[in-house]
Design a protein that fits this description.
By secondary structure, this protein is α/β, with parallel strands linked by helices. It has eight helices and ten strands. Helix 1 packs across helix 5.
């Protein structure tokens, strides 16, 4: 009899910053809720070449203890030489979810994100959570819905699947959203309106079919994709948004959220991939029918 496959770990990048501690707590609570191992990964550019035999820094021992207090059954530490972005990118190949803090060195004026988060979100093959509150030193909100931002057929199934995972883990409701372009001089066609509403309704129905116990609602936001979702972020627990694995445009919805939304953002790659349990028989049938928003 073959044994069940080992669950993929939640991997969180850690350092001594308060932002990394917030990311660790968020990742640990999720890992405990879904029964996944937790890996704390710290990249070290300088120092002892024999990292395996070196004692763990006190702050990492404290983070491991925090993870165990969150209920994580299996927490491990990896301290390796190298560039943080490159190492997390490589580790993401065998992760259920990659979690990083938001604030830190490299954040540009007016944004809420540093270079590590920007270097990972939208560029790796597993979901990436960028964890933050409304400002530095403020932990992420523990209330509000999980917002599933639907855009197209490639990203929709993974967004819904990840949103449902997070909602079940936290006991939150789900808000399925499609952001339509704002009004133009020619107006919005009724066909576009119907397609956007049908997209949202299909997403709501999928959540209901998979998890009748999870409260779910739907909304079409007619306010340009990026800003409409940033506005929703003020009352959201987390926003889940899809992306395609390609160079990320500075005008993309996902990048705008990662840079400016005042809540955790989870960027989910287009499917198929091992990280989404939504297959063609279970996915919303009309996810591609809404007009493009970027």
């Amino acid at each position: 009899m073959s044994s069940a496959p080992r669950p993929l770990p939640v991997v969180v990048g850690v350092d001594e910053s308060a932002s990394a501690r917030d990311a660790l707590h968020w990742a640990a609570e999720l890992a405990a809720a879904i029964g996944a191992p937790l890996v704390l990964l710290h990249a070290q550019l300088h120092g002892s070449a024999d990292l395996a035999s070196a004692p763990l820094p006190p702050y990492i021992r404290e983070l491991v203890a925090d993870a165990e207090r969150c209920g994580v059954a299996r927490a491990s530490v990896e301290i390796v030489h190298g560039n943080t972005v490159d190492l997390l990118h490589t580790r993401a190949r065998h992760a259920r979810l990659l979690v990083v803090g938001s604030y830190g060195d490299g954040a540009w004026s007016g944004t809420l994100v540093g270079h590590i988060a920007l270097g990972l979100a939208g560029r790796v093959g597993c979901p990436v959570a960028v964890v933050r509150g409304t400002s530095p030193g403020v932990p992420p909100a523990r209330g509000g819905p999980v917002v599933a931002a639907l855009e197209d057929l490639g990203t929709g199934p993974g967004v819904l699947d990840t949103a449902l995972l997070l909602a079940r883990a936290s006991g939150a409701s789900v808000l399925v959203v499609h952001c339509a372009p704002g009004p133009t001089s020619s107006g919005t066609s009724s066909a576009d309106d119907d397609a956007a509403r049908r997209l949202v309704d299909r997403g709501v129905q999928w959540i209901t079919d998979q998890a009748p116990e999870v409260a779910v609602a739907g909304e079409v936001v007619e306010d340009g994709a990026g800003q409409g979702l940033v506005d929703l972020a003020t009352a959201a627990r987390v926003i889940v948004v899809g992306h395609h694995l390609q160079p990320v445009s500075t005008r993309s919805t996902m990048r705008r959220l990662v840079e400016f939304a005042p809540c955790p953002i989870v960027a989910v790659p287009a499917q198929p991939a091992v990280h989404a349990a939504v297959d063609s028989d279970r996915a919303p049938a009309d996810v591609a029918s809404a007009p493009p928003t970027r």
